[in-house]
Amino acid sequence: xxxxxxxxxxxxxxxxxxxxxxxxxxxxxxxxxxxxxxxxxxxxxxxxxxxxxxxxxxxxxxxxxxxxxxxxxxxxxxxxxxxxxxxxxxxxxxxxxxxxxxxxxxxxxxxxxxxxxxxxxxxxxxxxxxxxxxxxxxxxxxxxxxxxxxxxxxxxxxxxxxxxxxxxxxxxxxxxxxxxxxxxxxxxxxxxxxxxxxxxxxxxxxxxxxxxxxxxxxxxxxxxxxxxxxxxxxxxxxxxxxxxxxxxxxxxxxxxxxxxxxxxxxxxxxxxxxxxxxxxxxxxxxxxxxxxxxxxxxxxxxxxxxxxxxxxxxxxxxxxxxxxxxxxxxxxxxxxxxxxxxxxxxxxxxxxxxxxxxxxxxxxxxxxxxxxxxxxxxxxxxxxxxxxxxxxxxxxxxxxxxxxxxxxxxxxxxxxxxxxxxxxxxxxxxxxxxxxxxxxxxxxxxxxxxx
Length: 451
Prior knowledge:
Number of strands: 0
Distance between the termini: 62 Å
Shape: globular
Structural class: mainly alpha
Radius of gyration: 23 Å
CATH topology of the largest domain: Clc chloride channel
CATH architecture of the largest domain: Orthogonal Bundle
CATH superfamily of the largest domain: Clc chloride channel
Number of domains: 2
Order of helices and strands: HHHHHHHHHHHHHHHHHHHH
Helix content: over 70%
Mean pLDDT: 84
């Protein structure tokens, strides 16, 4: 009898181990698919940026056609086909993890169908020359792909695997970011700092394993190559603290104002008597935004078009931009592109803005510190100020440039910039916009339920 009971316990133990192994295997496979989605999206985005550069360099006036009509068309398509895909994508994911699991509202925010439209429309925005990034959209696409995979597994497999929707969303979102930047550690930090409102999401081993799987698969496919290649090492001298803190202060103020303007939007900047008319004509607003972005691109020889990756990479490698006010021009172009209401992130443009501001600080504080280091520190500081996520900003810039020697400078500048940003904009940009998407989606799902 005792032998029989022992055999039963061993059988249950083996069954439990097998079920756990299958659960992990299925989850890791989904994370791998997220990484592949992200890398495919990156390839499409790079292709669109290349075509835009070829077209606008050969025929500069073409941007005055591509941007106004392109942004107007993209706004029309967004309204008709994927209204929850506008903007970055990170606010939608943050809103989704705060909604009831498997509810209609959560499904709308991280819909796989809308995320596929987000890929197409963001690629179109980059092709037109809008100042947007692909990393924020990669977060929403990753969350949607992972959630769709988990639900498909629940329906098709004969045994219950037990994936919580919030765990799927968090792992897919952070995995998408990790694969987009080729930075596994930054993906984990992002999951903890930005998405981890509940302990279950923060410290779930399955979530963190999924994030690392996506990041490591990206490293395996693309190689251990940094997102930004720093060709020569930078000297981290103690007397650089003054210029570093100056960069933190300038970027903190600029990043706080940047986020505040994005939150206010076109209606908030429009006089009250015209506000109603503006809100009734979003396509015309997108057309006007395209004209402004085209004008800024023409004034900077095309530097403000696209993500700003090439310009930021040049600045941290000691290649100063010919236009001293590139950072300010890029900031305005990014704000105006966001006002158009099209899909597209602010992550990489924020890094380019920070690098441009670092160039300005180095110009006016000539000889006090290495310009390359100030551009790099400013990238982290501006991103931290814009998002109020200083740990994510410092870790992601450190990991994407492989500049571990500057970690202390990056962290100090990010913390200070984030603190100053809160004085201008008390609510973090992504979380404020997540409340907007949450209200819209809940109201929409309730209307659908009553009809």
